[in-house]
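Standup notes, structure subgroup. Blocker cleared on the pyridoxal-5'-phosphate input:
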Amino acid sequence: MSLVSGCLGINSAGRLTIGGVDVTELAKEFETPLYIMDEGQIRQNCRAFSEAMAASYPGNWAVAYASKAFACKHMYRVIQEEDMLTDVASGGELFTALGGGLPPESIIFHGNNKTDEELRYAVKTGIRRVVANGTEELRRISRIAGESGRTVSVSLRLSPGIEPDTFSAVQTGQLDSKFGIPIETGDAMEAVRLALSLDGVELQGIHCHIGSQIFDTRPFTMTAEVMVSFMAKVRDELSFSLKELNLGGGYAVRYLPDQEVLSISDYVGAITKTVQDTAKRHGLPLPELVIEPGRAIVADAGITVYTVGSVKEILGVRTYLSVDGGMTDNPRYMLYGAEYDILLPARALESKTQTVTLAGRCCENELLGVDMPIQPVKAGDLLAVLNTGAYNYSMASNYNRVPRPPVVMVREGKPFLAVRRETWDDVARLDN
Ligand SMILES: Cc1ncc(COP(=O)(O)O)c(C=O)c1O
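Run returned:
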């Protein structure tokens, strides 16, 4: 049986383990539905990116964890210990990151249409970089910097005009996008000009993020070439040196056992080579290079464990399995048909002879996946959805007033609650 993540295993009793701990035992102790994450796998993923950058890029570099993939105070502590930067995409993520003890100078603030309140908070706390998504935001940053008598270190989010082959909801670098200032229309050059003229704004660099779950190096290298060439154009037209180049995230991870993915070192190596080649061609010094993996840091570190409530077989049609979670803890199938591997943790070695459609408990025709192979299953069985560490907990909702599951972290074989289970009281706590 091939498992989709290195932190998963099967013990001598034929049961699924994560970080060496028996998943069935964890479900007994913490109940279902339950997110479980392995801290060792998260750290291994962090190091794989840092080592690949160190090995292939002779200039200054940094790896920033895109914390929208999975954010809680403990996760931010791990990122700090791994000596990485962090990207936050809202005031709430920034608040949690600072609450987790992250130094402000390690935080990059992204997001479309940040509010004045968020920008004031970012300016007051003195974070490393605010990434402006457009010229209107740039002017607001300048105004807010003026109000507080500070200078804000800024980067500009550009859209390089690259359309990667991935779900349209996670394509973000093409011309027709709410994200970024387009290069091809001339708007990006005008934005640089504006940034250089505004008080309270110190322009450090440019940023882009073309999308997520991209399997091929080509869109990344095309983007790197466009961005470095733009830096050269800024030097030529405005006699200004942009110091930092942030190329965002987007590296695709494996969700199904037979999926082919790039290695982290091939992905990083392709980008760093293009940046170096293009800089050399234009006679530019090497920029400080930042990448922002999110999914790749946490996806394969997590699983979700449910209890099967009912098995509904419609002869000649399909078999529905309903579990005690659903789109409230994992909306990704409903959002973009995302696929996952599933198995029964208590009988992990048995052959997957059944095919099921996995349904949730919401009052909605909501699914977690269709036509999924699984071991022979019955009501009351535990069921694990694998590689749910990214964009599951962070995208969870309280639809139907369903409380969100807890996150149990396994560290060196010991489980602890990184996030406790929500209660009905939590769900109703804001109501007057
Ligand atoms: C600005 C930015 N950086 C990084 C990421 C992380 O992308 P991924 O999780 O695909 O690595 C995202 C994801 O949306 C993003 O918007």
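Discussed briefly. The first strand starts at residue 8 and ends at 10.
Next: hand off to the docking folks.
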